[in-house]
């Protein structure tokens, strides 16, 4: 559910017409709906936090300070994968006691930074990383709280680039090696074994893979208990999908919780952590872009817009579908077209062979579901300044990031 809807012929973000925002701030422009974000946070809190769990927002989905501040005010924690994300989370006021740190390539400097800031736990992805954490913690005279990221070898039935919990991918430690890993960890002087972590993929549209994975993890917890290793935290990861197209019907957080929490009755005394990114911010953001030109070749119709793969990479990288709506509805015919950006690559498109209302030059189009992995994956490719971002709250709006300038492009160059 989100608050981007047509009122009459005009598409609104909450109570603000998107065309007016495009006029005021220019395009390409990311627009977020504060009340959509709050609604999603509330749904997660009800489903997982009320029964005692912790919500850790996955910063990689969107790390704009205004969004993080909103999450911090709502008491959310953070799932981070770099020192930079730790910096952003702390700066936004997120409590380090609710920060979990995953990723296969944490550096010694990043580990030391997180230790000094006293995060909740490192989600460790390999034996060598565990040794490094032990060494760095030893150097600081500290004990590092860790969880093992288990690779349960479950197919999440999503795009291969965003699948993680199968053996062929680089993430986590195979479930059959986990007991041995925990034994080693428990014997290390500067390691405090705290939890267990799974994250099997992103944009999952069914509960079943989450359940299959959790069953394997719960089995392992039983074996660990029998071996005298007691955990306090169970991190279920993120990955709940959103509705990009009408064919997708992902469960809502409450349905995910109803599917998983009964399984947890088998084990007591574990604090559950969830790490959603997309399902908090994905549908809470759109990308506004202006049609620059139209072009017809013998083969195709092209709608050339001012947002490219540097602004929203998902269609190019994953072949991802994002609905595209006109900011102003009008009576007109339709045509099948490719919506493409200005980048010098044939892979630069926002939509391919899409049936759309016939677009006019100068018209504002709205790319839906762009709040997650939109701005956060954007770049300066083709020396394009990155877009501006705006937050809408009811009938008010305020900029949360300035559009970059040409000068920003060369900042730091020597
Ligand atoms: N936890 C961990 C350890 C993760 O690796 C991720 C995402 C999440 C949580 C959050 O997953 P979410 O709830 O957002 O699905 N760029 C891709 C998505 C990559 C996801 C990477 N990991 C995309 O645009 O679809």
Q: How does this model look, in words?
A:
By secondary structure, this protein is an alpha/beta fold. The protein folds into two domains: 4-32 and 282-409, Lyase, Ornithine Decarboxylase, Chain A, domain 1 (Beta Barrel); 95-276, TIM Barrel, CATH 3.20.20.10. Helices cover 28% and strands 26% of the residues. The chain has twelve helices and 21 strands. It has helices at residues 18-25, 34-49, 65-73, 83-91, 108-116, 127-139, 178-186, 208-226, 253-264, 278-281, 314-318, 406-409; strands at 4-7, 10-13, 16-17, 29-33, 54-58, 77-80, 99-101, 121-124, 144-151, 173-174, 191-197, 233-235, 271-274, 285-296, 301-305, 324-326, 334-340, 349-357, 364-367, 388-393, 396-401. Strands 4, 14, 15, 16, 17, 18, 19, 20 and 21 form a nine-stranded mixed beta sheet that branches. The chain has an eight-stranded parallel β-barrel with strand order 5-6-7-8-9-11-12-13, surrounded by four helices. Strands 1-2-3 form a three-stranded antiparallel beta sheet. α3 (65-73) links the parallel β5 and β6 (77-80). α8 (208-226) runs parallel beside α9 (253-264). The chain is elongated, with a radius of gyration of 22 Å. The mean pLDDT is 96. Ligand LLP binds at residues 58, 60-61, 79, 102, 162, 199, 202-203, 237-240, 275-279, 314, 318, 372-373, 377. Ligand LLP is lined by residues 58, 60-61, 79, 102, 162, 199, 202-203, 237-240, 275-279, 314, 318, 372-373, 377.
